[in-house]
Amino acid sequence: MKQWPLVVIGFVFIAAWPLLVHDVFYQRIGALVLLAAISASAWNLLGGYAGQVSVGHAVYFGAGAYASLVVFTDWGWPPIAGAPVGVVVSMAISALVGTPTFRLRGHYFSMATIAAAELFRILAANWPLLGAAVGLMGPPVPRTVWDLSFISPAPYHYLFLSVLIVLLGLTWLMQRSRMGYYLAAIRGGDRAAQSLGVPVLRYKLYALLLSAAFTSIAGSLYAVMVGFLDPDSALGIVISVKLLLVAALGGGGTLVGPLVGELMLLPLPVSSNAAFGGGGTGIPFIVYGAIIVLVARFQPGGVAAFWQAVTTRRASRVP
Predict the structure, then answer these.
(1) pLDDT at residue 148 in the model
(2) What's the CA angle centered on 249, arms 23 and 234, to 5 degrees?
(3) Whether the Cβ atoms of residue 116 and residue 101 lie closer than 8 Å to each other
């Protein structure tokens, strides 16, 4: 991989970000970029590598987020203790949703995932255990270090970076394993993969289970950092759309594409909120829609495919 030096330099810069900027606002942005990259990289396992475009991943994000705050409000545990619970719940939901919906193809599968996510959002909005429409809150003040309640965003930055590195490491290993080759065949077409002896439904489900688990972890980390949840912030369809958009813009089915996509998209809501305040909340969604159309029309492979085309063209010109 010729881009490894750039990747290493990029991660060194990201690791040094809290040391390079001393403004808490920009340090928090850096932590949020890494958190969003974890979510989008998790979605990429299914939507990028397996080619199954899910628009319902908010349900797994919400499962992890709600699990973290439920164990605090009901049992007084540190919110991070709910992360394993969220992983188990999200994997159970993914098996429940994936088993029937993977028999659908194309946009029918995407529509089914939207319906499933909306069903769980409505359930959360009416379930007292999850705070119903009011939502749940985390610890108002840190009780122990295990509450992971920090004033500075820097500890969150390094926590999220560690999780992202683990996820990308597992993704890199998966790419080079039998599962990676099977998913590549499935992305090329179910019938073609079946003709080669690939157990299509089984490996789709494997990809969904792994994707749901890490999306749930991202949700738990979000709950730990933010300390408040309601049905829209944890299970809203906007979460699913942003995961899809970030991965597609950076390059679906590539290792660092979701991180690149998030680095490109994050300034949009931040700058619109700074420029227009509350009146600019709808601007990012208009631009998101335009980006989806442009990427689908002109560069379906995202920035990664564009960069590969540019480097290949330059290499061909070298005598």
Answers:
(1) 86
(2) 65
(3) yes
| Distances 284 to 242, 268, 291, 296 between C-alpha atoms, Å | 10, 6, 10, 18
Burial bucket for residue 207 (CB in 10 Å: 0-12, 13-18, 19+) = buried
Q: Specify if 248 maps to a domain.
A: no
Distance CA 130, CA 86 (A): 13
Alpha helices, H only, the chain: 4-20, 24-47, 58-75, 83-101, 107-125, 154-175, 178-188, 190-195, 200-226, 231-235, 237-250, 257-265, 267-276, 283-298, 302-317
Integer angstrom CA distances of residue 133 from 31, 63, 124:
28, 16, 8
> Once rounded to an integer, what is the mean pLDDT over residues 13-29?
89
Range(s) of the domain holding residue 58? 4-236
201 located within any domain? yes
Mean pLDDT of 39-55: 94
Asked if residue 17 belongs to a domain, the reply is yes
Q: 218 in a domain, yes or no?
A: yes
What pLDDT, in 10s, does the model give residues 275-299? 666 566 667 777 777 777 777 777 7
Rounded Cα–Cα distance for residues 251 and 254 (Å): 6
Distance, in Å, from the CA atom of 280 to the CA atom of 278, rounded to the nearest integer, reads 5
State how many domains the chain has: 1
pTM above threshold 0.85: yes
Cα–Cα distance measured from residue 247 to residue 50, given in angstroms and rounded to the nearest whole number: 13
**Cβ atoms 256, 9 nearer than 8 A:** no
- Residue-wise pLDDT tens digits, 108-140: 999 999 999 999 999 999 999 998 889 899 888
Per-residue model confidence as pLDDT tens digits over 63-97? 999 999 999 999 989 999 999 999 999 999 999 99
